[in-house]
Protein backbone atom coordinates (compact mmCIF):
# COMPACT_ATOMS: atom_id res chain seq x y z
CA UNK A 1 0.00 0.00 0.00
CA UNK A 2 1.37 3.38 -0.99
CA UNK A 3 1.58 5.85 1.83
CA UNK A 4 -1.05 8.58 1.55
CA UNK A 5 0.17 11.91 0.27
CA UNK A 6 -1.23 15.28 1.23
CA UNK A 7 -2.04 18.71 -0.11
CA UNK A 8 -1.06 19.63 -3.63
CA UNK A 9 0.97 16.42 -3.99
CA UNK A 10 -2.39 14.63 -4.14
CA UNK A 11 -4.68 17.28 -5.58
CA UNK A 12 -2.71 18.24 -8.69
CA UNK A 13 -2.09 14.71 -10.03
CA UNK A 14 -5.70 13.68 -9.38
CA UNK A 15 -7.07 16.71 -11.21
CA UNK A 16 -4.65 16.22 -14.11
CA UNK A 17 -5.61 12.55 -14.39
CA UNK A 18 -9.28 13.60 -14.31
CA UNK A 19 -8.66 15.52 -17.56
CA UNK A 20 -8.60 12.10 -19.22
CA UNK A 21 -12.12 11.55 -17.90
CA UNK A 22 -13.07 14.94 -19.36
CA UNK A 23 -11.85 13.71 -22.76
CA UNK A 24 -13.73 10.44 -22.39
CA UNK A 25 -17.02 12.11 -21.53
CA UNK A 26 -16.70 14.63 -24.35
CA UNK A 27 -15.90 12.11 -27.07
CA UNK A 28 -18.54 9.54 -26.11
CA UNK A 29 -21.38 12.08 -25.83
CA UNK A 30 -20.55 13.98 -29.02
CA UNK A 31 -23.11 11.94 -31.07
CA UNK A 32 -25.97 13.50 -29.08
CA UNK A 33 -25.54 16.83 -30.91
CA UNK A 34 -24.31 15.39 -34.21
CA UNK A 35 -26.46 12.28 -34.70
CA UNK A 36 -28.22 13.56 -37.82
CA UNK A 37 -25.10 14.68 -39.70
CA UNK A 38 -23.14 11.61 -38.56
CA UNK A 39 -25.91 9.35 -39.91
CA UNK A 40 -26.08 11.30 -43.17
CA UNK A 41 -22.34 11.44 -43.82
CA UNK A 42 -21.71 7.82 -42.85
CA UNK A 43 -24.73 6.58 -44.79
CA UNK A 44 -26.47 4.81 -41.88
CA UNK A 45 -29.80 5.09 -40.03
CA UNK A 46 -30.23 6.38 -36.48
CA UNK A 47 -30.57 2.76 -35.32
CA UNK A 48 -27.37 1.92 -37.19
CA UNK A 49 -25.59 4.81 -35.49
CA UNK A 50 -26.70 3.48 -32.09
CA UNK A 51 -25.22 0.08 -32.95
CA UNK A 52 -22.02 1.65 -34.32
CA UNK A 53 -21.42 3.91 -31.32
CA UNK A 54 -22.28 0.94 -29.07
CA UNK A 55 -18.86 -0.42 -30.04
CA UNK A 56 -17.32 2.23 -27.77
CA UNK A 57 -18.75 0.93 -24.47
CA UNK A 58 -18.33 -2.69 -25.63
CA UNK A 59 -14.60 -2.19 -26.26
CA UNK A 60 -14.40 -0.14 -23.06
CA UNK A 61 -15.87 -2.97 -20.98
CA UNK A 62 -13.63 -5.64 -22.51
CA UNK A 63 -10.55 -3.49 -21.89
CA UNK A 64 -11.34 -3.15 -18.19
CA UNK A 65 -9.72 -6.50 -17.34
CA UNK A 66 -6.26 -5.59 -18.70
CA UNK A 67 -6.66 -2.05 -17.36
CA UNK A 68 -7.36 -3.34 -13.86
CA UNK A 69 -4.31 -5.60 -14.09
CA UNK A 70 -2.13 -2.76 -15.43
CA UNK A 71 -3.15 -0.34 -12.66
CA UNK A 72 -2.19 -2.81 -9.92
CA UNK A 73 0.88 -4.18 -11.73
CA UNK A 74 2.42 -1.16 -13.48
CA UNK A 75 0.86 1.80 -11.67
CA UNK A 76 -1.27 4.75 -12.64
CA UNK A 77 1.32 6.83 -14.53
CA UNK A 78 2.33 4.28 -17.16
CA UNK A 79 -1.22 3.01 -17.58
CA UNK A 80 -2.60 6.51 -18.06
CA UNK A 81 0.04 7.56 -20.60
CA UNK A 82 -0.50 4.41 -22.66
CA UNK A 83 -4.28 4.82 -22.71
CA UNK A 84 -4.10 8.52 -23.57
CA UNK A 85 -1.94 7.68 -26.58
CA UNK A 86 -4.49 5.10 -27.74
CA UNK A 87 -7.40 7.48 -27.12
CA UNK A 88 -5.78 10.30 -29.09
CA UNK A 89 -5.19 7.91 -31.98
CA UNK A 90 -8.85 6.91 -31.87
CA UNK A 91 -9.99 10.54 -31.98
CA UNK A 92 -7.83 11.19 -35.05
CA UNK A 93 -9.17 8.02 -36.70
CA UNK A 94 -12.76 9.16 -36.04
CA UNK A 95 -12.04 12.62 -37.46
CA UNK A 96 -10.68 11.02 -40.66
CA UNK A 97 -13.24 8.19 -40.96
CA UNK A 98 -14.67 8.09 -44.52
CA UNK A 99 -17.45 5.60 -43.78
CA UNK A 100 -19.28 3.44 -41.27
CA UNK A 101 -16.70 0.64 -41.01
CA UNK A 102 -13.79 2.99 -40.35
CA UNK A 103 -15.88 4.86 -37.78
CA UNK A 104 -16.64 1.52 -36.14
CA UNK A 105 -12.91 0.84 -35.88
CA UNK A 106 -12.34 4.34 -34.48
CA UNK A 107 -15.03 3.78 -31.84
CA UNK A 108 -13.35 0.52 -30.78
CA UNK A 109 -9.97 2.26 -30.45
CA UNK A 110 -11.59 5.12 -28.52
CA UNK A 111 -13.33 2.66 -26.21
CA UNK A 112 -10.04 0.92 -25.42
CA UNK A 113 -8.23 4.21 -24.90
CA UNK A 114 -10.92 5.67 -22.65
CA UNK A 115 -11.33 2.51 -20.58
CA UNK A 116 -9.04 3.72 -17.79
CA UNK A 117 -9.76 7.45 -17.88
CA UNK A 118 -11.93 7.26 -14.78
CA UNK A 119 -10.09 4.41 -13.10
CA UNK A 120 -6.68 6.13 -13.24
CA UNK A 121 -7.62 9.11 -11.02
CA UNK A 122 -9.86 6.88 -8.88
CA UNK A 123 -7.06 4.37 -8.26
CA UNK A 124 -4.53 7.14 -7.57
CA UNK A 125 -6.92 8.69 -5.03
CA UNK A 126 -7.76 5.33 -3.44
CA UNK A 127 -4.06 4.64 -2.83
CA UNK A 128 -3.04 8.15 -1.80
CA UNK A 129 -5.93 9.20 0.48
CA UNK A 130 -7.82 7.91 3.48
CA UNK A 131 -11.20 6.18 3.16
CA UNK A 132 -13.02 9.34 4.24
CA UNK A 133 -11.07 11.52 1.81
CA UNK A 134 -11.59 9.05 -1.01
CA UNK A 135 -15.36 9.48 -0.82
CA UNK A 136 -14.84 13.22 -1.32
CA UNK A 137 -12.28 12.79 -4.09
CA UNK A 138 -14.41 10.31 -5.99
CA UNK A 139 -17.12 12.97 -6.16
CA UNK A 140 -14.64 15.62 -7.29
CA UNK A 141 -13.24 13.32 -9.99
CA UNK A 142 -16.72 12.61 -11.30
CA UNK A 143 -17.63 16.29 -11.24
CA UNK A 144 -14.48 17.33 -13.12
CA UNK A 145 -14.86 14.49 -15.59
CA UNK A 146 -18.51 15.24 -16.25
CA UNK A 147 -17.49 18.72 -17.36
CA UNK A 148 -16.40 16.95 -20.55
CA UNK A 149 -20.09 16.66 -21.34
CA UNK A 150 -20.29 20.45 -21.05
CA UNK A 151 -17.97 20.57 -24.04
CA UNK A 152 -20.17 18.22 -26.04
CA UNK A 153 -23.30 20.29 -25.42
CA UNK A 154 -23.51 23.90 -26.65
CA UNK A 155 -19.79 24.37 -27.51
CA UNK A 156 -19.62 21.27 -29.73
CA UNK A 157 -23.07 21.97 -31.14
CA UNK A 158 -21.76 25.35 -32.32
CA UNK A 159 -18.56 23.74 -33.61
CA UNK A 160 -20.55 21.10 -35.52
CA UNK A 161 -22.74 23.81 -37.05
CA UNK A 162 -19.66 25.81 -38.01
CA UNK A 163 -17.11 23.20 -39.08
CA UNK A 164 -18.89 19.82 -39.04
CA UNK A 165 -18.72 16.80 -36.75
CA UNK A 166 -15.13 15.94 -37.70
CA UNK A 167 -13.95 19.13 -36.00
CA UNK A 168 -15.36 17.79 -32.73
CA UNK A 169 -13.10 14.74 -32.91
CA UNK A 170 -10.09 16.90 -33.85
CA UNK A 171 -10.75 19.04 -30.77
CA UNK A 172 -10.89 15.87 -28.64
CA UNK A 173 -7.56 14.70 -30.09
CA UNK A 174 -5.94 17.99 -29.06
CA UNK A 175 -7.32 17.57 -25.52
CA UNK A 176 -5.85 14.05 -25.35
CA UNK A 177 -2.43 15.41 -26.35
CA UNK A 178 -2.53 18.18 -23.74
CA UNK A 179 -3.56 15.69 -21.05
CA UNK A 180 -0.72 13.32 -22.01
CA UNK A 181 1.81 16.12 -21.51
CA UNK A 182 0.23 17.15 -18.21
CA UNK A 183 0.31 13.58 -16.84
CA UNK A 184 3.95 13.26 -17.90
CA UNK A 185 4.79 16.40 -15.95
CA UNK A 186 2.80 15.84 -12.75
CA UNK A 187 2.01 12.20 -11.94
CA UNK A 188 4.73 10.46 -9.98
CA UNK A 189 2.92 7.79 -7.92
CA UNK A 190 4.87 4.49 -8.24
CA UNK A 191 3.17 1.13 -8.80
CA UNK A 192 2.23 -0.76 -5.63
CA UNK A 193 4.79 -3.23 -4.29
CA UNK A 194 4.30 -6.86 -5.25
CA UNK A 195 4.99 -9.54 -2.70
CA UNK A 196 5.41 -12.44 -5.12
CA UNK A 197 5.75 -12.78 -8.89
CA UNK A 198 2.47 -13.58 -10.63
CA UNK A 199 1.52 -14.10 -14.25
CA UNK A 200 -0.60 -11.61 -16.19
CA UNK A 201 -3.12 -14.39 -16.72
CA UNK A 202 -3.42 -14.86 -12.95
CA UNK A 203 -4.07 -11.14 -12.48
CA UNK A 204 -6.65 -11.10 -15.28
CA UNK A 205 -8.51 -14.03 -13.76
CA UNK A 206 -8.53 -12.20 -10.45
CA UNK A 207 -10.38 -9.23 -11.99
CA UNK A 208 -13.08 -11.62 -13.20
CA UNK A 209 -13.12 -13.40 -9.83
CA UNK A 210 -13.61 -10.10 -8.02
CA UNK A 211 -16.43 -9.17 -10.40
CA UNK A 212 -18.43 -12.31 -9.59
CA UNK A 213 -17.50 -12.54 -5.90
CA UNK A 214 -20.33 -12.39 -3.34
CA UNK A 215 -19.08 -9.03 -2.05
CA UNK A 216 -19.32 -7.44 -5.52
CA UNK A 217 -22.10 -9.38 -7.26
CA UNK A 218 -25.04 -7.19 -6.24
CA UNK A 219 -23.12 -4.01 -7.03
CA UNK A 220 -22.23 -5.31 -10.50
CA UNK A 221 -25.92 -5.83 -11.25
CA UNK A 222 -26.84 -2.37 -9.98
CA UNK A 223 -24.27 -0.47 -12.05
CA UNK A 224 -25.14 -2.43 -15.22
CA UNK A 225 -27.88 0.14 -15.91
CA UNK A 226 -26.48 3.07 -13.95
CA UNK A 227 -24.08 4.57 -16.46
CA UNK A 228 -25.95 3.16 -19.45
CA UNK A 229 -28.78 5.61 -18.78
CA UNK A 230 -26.37 8.57 -18.75
CA UNK A 231 -24.81 7.51 -22.03
CA UNK A 232 -28.20 6.69 -23.53
CA UNK A 233 -30.06 9.84 -22.50
CA UNK A 234 -27.29 12.44 -22.49
CA UNK A 235 -24.93 10.81 -24.95
CA UNK A 236 -27.17 9.51 -27.74
CA UNK A 237 -30.96 9.81 -27.65
CA UNK A 238 -31.39 13.14 -25.83
CA UNK A 239 -30.37 15.12 -28.91
CA UNK A 240 -32.70 13.30 -31.33
CA UNK A 241 -35.58 13.60 -28.83
CA UNK A 242 -35.13 17.35 -28.55
CA UNK A 243 -34.53 17.95 -32.28
CA UNK A 244 -36.75 15.40 -33.99
CA UNK A 245 -39.59 15.12 -31.48
CA UNK A 246 -39.61 18.53 -29.81
CA UNK A 247 -38.51 20.48 -32.91
CA UNK A 248 -35.49 22.30 -31.46
CA UNK A 249 -32.52 23.37 -33.56
CA UNK A 250 -29.12 21.76 -32.93
CA UNK A 251 -27.86 24.71 -30.89
CA UNK A 252 -31.12 24.92 -28.90
CA UNK A 253 -30.89 21.20 -28.16
CA UNK A 254 -27.24 21.70 -27.20
CA UNK A 255 -28.26 24.40 -24.73
CA UNK A 256 -30.79 22.06 -23.09
CA UNK A 257 -28.20 19.29 -22.89
CA UNK A 258 -25.74 21.82 -21.49
CA UNK A 259 -28.08 22.43 -18.54
CA UNK A 260 -28.38 18.67 -18.03
CA UNK A 261 -24.60 18.43 -18.03
CA UNK A 262 -24.27 21.22 -15.48
CA UNK A 263 -26.46 19.09 -13.23
CA UNK A 264 -24.26 16.04 -13.93
CA UNK A 265 -21.25 18.14 -12.92
CA UNK A 266 -22.85 19.40 -9.70
CA UNK A 267 -24.58 16.13 -8.85
CA UNK A 268 -21.62 14.13 -7.48
CA UNK A 269 -20.87 16.83 -4.90
CA UNK A 270 -24.54 16.92 -3.93
CA UNK A 271 -24.53 13.12 -3.60
CA UNK A 272 -21.54 13.29 -1.25
CA UNK A 273 -23.19 15.94 0.91
CA UNK A 274 -26.46 14.02 1.15
CA UNK A 275 -24.63 10.77 1.85
CA UNK A 276 -22.70 12.30 4.75
CA UNK A 277 -25.80 14.02 6.15
CA UNK A 278 -28.32 11.23 5.73
CA UNK A 279 -26.42 7.95 5.49
CA UNK A 280 -28.48 4.97 4.26
CA UNK A 281 -26.33 4.67 1.14
CA UNK A 282 -28.20 1.66 -0.24
CA UNK A 283 -31.55 3.46 0.00
CA UNK A 284 -30.05 6.52 -1.70
CA UNK A 285 -28.70 4.44 -4.58
CA UNK A 286 -31.90 2.48 -5.21
CA UNK A 287 -34.05 5.57 -4.72
CA UNK A 288 -32.00 7.47 -7.30
CA UNK A 289 -32.51 4.74 -9.90
CA UNK A 290 -36.25 4.56 -9.30
CA UNK A 291 -36.55 8.36 -9.41
CA UNK A 292 -34.63 8.59 -12.69
CA UNK A 293 -36.83 5.92 -14.26
CA UNK A 294 -39.83 8.02 -13.23
CA UNK A 295 -38.28 11.14 -14.76
CA UNK A 296 -37.79 9.37 -18.09
CA UNK A 297 -41.40 8.18 -18.10
CA UNK A 298 -42.51 11.76 -17.32
CA UNK A 299 -40.38 13.05 -20.21
CA UNK A 300 -42.11 10.64 -22.58
CA UNK A 301 -45.53 11.46 -21.13
CA UNK A 302 -44.96 15.10 -22.09
CA UNK A 303 -44.18 14.25 -25.71
CA UNK A 304 -46.58 14.19 -28.69
CA UNK A 305 -49.55 12.01 -27.79
CA UNK A 306 -48.13 11.36 -24.31
CA UNK A 307 -50.39 10.75 -21.33
CA UNK A 308 -49.44 14.01 -19.59
CA UNK A 309 -49.86 16.04 -22.78
CA UNK A 310 -53.32 14.51 -23.31
CA UNK A 311 -54.29 15.13 -19.70
CA UNK A 312 -53.44 18.83 -20.10
CA UNK A 313 -55.11 19.06 -23.50
CA UNK A 314 -51.88 19.97 -25.33
CA UNK A 315 -50.22 18.49 -28.44
CA UNK A 316 -47.05 18.20 -26.32
CA UNK A 317 -45.49 19.99 -23.39
CA UNK A 318 -43.02 22.82 -24.15
CA UNK A 319 -39.25 22.23 -24.21
CA UNK A 320 -38.91 24.00 -20.86
CA UNK A 321 -40.58 20.94 -19.33
CA UNK A 322 -37.89 18.72 -20.85
CA UNK A 323 -35.21 21.13 -19.69
CA UNK A 324 -36.41 20.94 -16.08
CA UNK A 325 -36.67 17.14 -16.13
CA UNK A 326 -33.23 16.70 -17.69
CA UNK A 327 -31.69 19.01 -15.08
CA UNK A 328 -33.21 16.95 -12.26
CA UNK A 329 -32.16 13.79 -14.12
CA UNK A 330 -28.53 14.97 -14.05
CA UNK A 331 -28.61 15.67 -10.33
CA UNK A 332 -30.28 12.43 -9.29
CA UNK A 333 -28.41 9.94 -11.50
CA UNK A 334 -25.15 11.36 -10.12
CA UNK A 335 -25.77 9.44 -6.89
CA UNK A 336 -24.15 6.54 -8.77
CA UNK A 337 -20.82 7.98 -7.57
CA UNK A 338 -21.53 6.39 -4.18
CA UNK A 339 -20.97 2.97 -5.72
CA UNK A 340 -17.21 3.57 -5.92
CA UNK A 341 -16.92 3.72 -2.14
CA UNK A 342 -18.84 0.44 -1.91
CA UNK A 343 -16.43 -1.19 -4.37
CA UNK A 344 -13.36 0.14 -2.54
CA UNK A 345 -14.65 -1.20 0.78
CA UNK A 346 -15.37 -4.64 -0.70
CA UNK A 347 -11.72 -5.63 -1.29
CA UNK A 348 -8.28 -5.32 0.36
CA UNK A 349 -6.25 -2.22 -0.58
CA UNK A 350 -3.93 -4.13 -2.92
CA UNK A 351 -6.94 -5.14 -5.05
CA UNK A 352 -8.36 -1.64 -5.39
CA UNK A 353 -7.48 -1.16 -9.05
CA UNK A 354 -8.95 -4.52 -10.02
CA UNK A 355 -12.15 -3.98 -8.00
CA UNK A 356 -12.77 -0.53 -9.45
CA UNK A 357 -12.04 -1.86 -12.92
CA UNK A 358 -14.42 -4.78 -12.40
CA UNK A 359 -17.14 -2.31 -11.45
CA UNK A 360 -16.38 -0.14 -14.45
CA UNK A 361 -16.55 -3.25 -16.64
CA UNK A 362 -20.18 -3.64 -15.62
CA UNK A 363 -20.80 0.11 -16.01
CA UNK A 364 -19.75 0.02 -19.64
CA UNK A 365 -20.75 -3.55 -20.43
CA UNK A 366 -24.25 -2.51 -19.45
CA UNK A 367 -23.98 0.59 -21.60
CA UNK A 368 -22.99 -1.52 -24.62
CA UNK A 369 -25.80 -4.04 -24.14
CA UNK A 370 -28.51 -1.51 -23.34
CA UNK A 371 -27.47 0.81 -26.15
CA UNK A 372 -27.93 -2.10 -28.55
CA UNK A 373 -31.34 -2.81 -27.02
CA UNK A 374 -32.26 0.87 -27.31
CA UNK A 375 -31.40 0.78 -31.02
CA UNK A 376 -33.76 -2.17 -31.50
CA UNK A 377 -36.40 -0.35 -29.47
CA UNK A 378 -35.98 2.74 -31.66
CA UNK A 379 -36.48 0.65 -34.80
CA UNK A 380 -39.74 -0.59 -33.27
CA UNK A 381 -41.16 2.51 -31.59
CA UNK A 382 -38.91 5.49 -32.33
CA UNK A 383 -36.86 7.65 -29.97
CA UNK A 384 -39.47 7.41 -27.20
CA UNK A 385 -39.16 3.62 -27.11
CA UNK A 386 -35.36 3.91 -27.01
CA UNK A 387 -35.50 6.21 -23.99
CA UNK A 388 -38.12 4.06 -22.29
CA UNK A 389 -35.87 0.99 -22.53
CA UNK A 390 -33.39 2.66 -20.18
CA UNK A 391 -36.08 3.41 -17.59
CA UNK A 392 -37.12 -0.25 -17.57
CA UNK A 393 -33.48 -1.34 -17.21
CA UNK A 394 -33.00 0.91 -14.16
CA UNK A 395 -35.97 -0.69 -12.41
CA UNK A 396 -34.90 -4.24 -13.26
CA UNK A 397 -31.29 -3.74 -12.13
CA UNK A 398 -32.37 -2.04 -8.89
CA UNK A 399 -34.67 -4.96 -8.09
CA UNK A 400 -31.83 -7.40 -8.82
CA UNK A 401 -29.49 -5.43 -6.57
CA UNK A 402 -31.88 -5.60 -3.61
CA UNK A 403 -32.59 -9.30 -4.20
CA UNK A 404 -28.90 -10.26 -4.30
CA UNK A 405 -28.13 -8.21 -1.18
CA UNK A 406 -30.89 -10.04 0.72
CA UNK A 407 -29.45 -13.39 -0.34
What does this structure look like?
The chain has 407 residues and is mostly helical. It has one domain: MFS general substrate transporter like domains (Growth Hormone, Chain: A, Up-down Bundle), CATH 1.20.1250.20. The chain has 18 helices and no strands. The longest helix is centred in the C-terminal third of the chain and has 55 residues. The radius of gyration is 20 Å and the shape is globular. The protein starts with 7 loop residues before the first helix and ends with a helix. The N terminus is likely disordered.
Topology:
Elements: H1 8-29, H2 31-42, H3 46-53, H4 55-74, H5 76-96, H6 100-114, H7 119-128, H8 131-151, H9 154-163, H10 165-186, H11 200-212, H12 214-245, H13 250-278, H14 281-301, H15 307-311, H16 319-333, H17 338-345, H18 352-406
Helix pairs in contact: 1-5, 1-7, 1-8, 1-10, 2-3, 2-12, 3-18, 4-5, 4-6, 4-11, 4-18, 5-6, 5-7, 5-10, 7-8, 7-18, 8-13, 8-17, 9-10, 9-13, 11-18, 12-13, 12-16, 12-18, 13-16, 14-16, 14-18
Question: Quick summary of this structure?
Answer:
The protein is mainly α and 407 residues long.
Poorly predicted parts: 1-5
Percent of residues in helical segments? over 70%
Global morphology: globular
Q: Total number of helical segments?
A: 18
Mean pLDDT: 84
Classify the beta-strand content into a percent band: under 5%
Major sheet, described briefly? Answer: none
Task: Give me the CATH architecture, please.
Answer: Up-down Bundle
CATH superfamily descriptor: MFS general substrate transporter like domains
**Named CATH topology:** Growth Hormone, Chain: A
Amino acid sequence: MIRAERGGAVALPILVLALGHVFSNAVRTLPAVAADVLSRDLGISAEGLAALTGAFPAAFALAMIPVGVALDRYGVRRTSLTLLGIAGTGAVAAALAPGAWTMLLAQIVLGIGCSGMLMCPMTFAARATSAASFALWSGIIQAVGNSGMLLSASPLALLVEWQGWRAGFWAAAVLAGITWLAVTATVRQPPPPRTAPRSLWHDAREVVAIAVSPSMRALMVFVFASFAVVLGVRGLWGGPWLMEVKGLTRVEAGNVLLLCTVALTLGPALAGIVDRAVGHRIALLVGSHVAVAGLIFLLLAGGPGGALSALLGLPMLPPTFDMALLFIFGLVISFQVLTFSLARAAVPPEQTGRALSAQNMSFFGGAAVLQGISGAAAAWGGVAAALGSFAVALLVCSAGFLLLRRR
